[in-house]
Amino acid sequence: MIEYTQTELRIMAIFSAMGAVFSFLIGGVDKLVTALLIFIVIDYVTGLIAAWNTGSLQSKKGFEGIKRKLAMLMIVIIANWVDVALFGSSTCRSMIIFAYIGNEGLSIIENLDRMGYGQYIPVFMRDRLMQLREEKQFLKGNE
């Protein structure tokens, strides 16, 4: 039998409570939420590796990335409770999650390109990514 110290038990209780609250707020951790969380982690890790490879790794940018990911999860929570309050289904929540999964997927592909693996990205997709990158730079220049 495994014996835990009081500190270990407290840590497990805190994380269990945090997980239960998160699951309640987000409408349960189903396959859709799991996919979103996996995409979020892959995007963040590939972003870190790409920044390391390009010499642009900065803790401030990394923290901004974490804040954006948390904001995404907050919006999923809001969408879940809009569904609960108005519709009794998970329509808004699912639509929001699908949109974020698509956005995270594009970001992962961009990160892979920045990491030097662009040759594995289909040409039509690379062309579209280049167009998106140019549009982003144009918008940043006009702010």
Could you walk me through the main structural features you see in this protein, from its secondary elements to its overall organization?
The protein has 143 residues and is mostly helical. The protein has one domain. Helix content is 84%, strand content 0%. It is built from 5 helices and no strands. Helix 2 packs parallel to helix 4 and helix 3 runs antiparallel to helix 4. The chain is globular and about 55 Å long. The protein starts with 5 loop residues before the first helix and ends with a helix.
The total domain count is 1
Helix percent reads over 70%
SSE ordering: HHHHH
The total beta strand count reads 0
How much of the polypeptide forms β-strand, as a percent range?
under 5%
Q: Quick one: overall form?
A: globular
Euclidean distance between termini CA atoms = 61 Å
Ranges where pLDDT stays below 50 over 5 or more residues in a row are none
**If helices are DSSP runs of H or I spanning 4 or more residues, what is the number of helices?**
5
Mean pLDDT: 91
Biggest beta sheet attributes: none
Structural class: mainly alpha
Gyration radius over CA = 19 Å
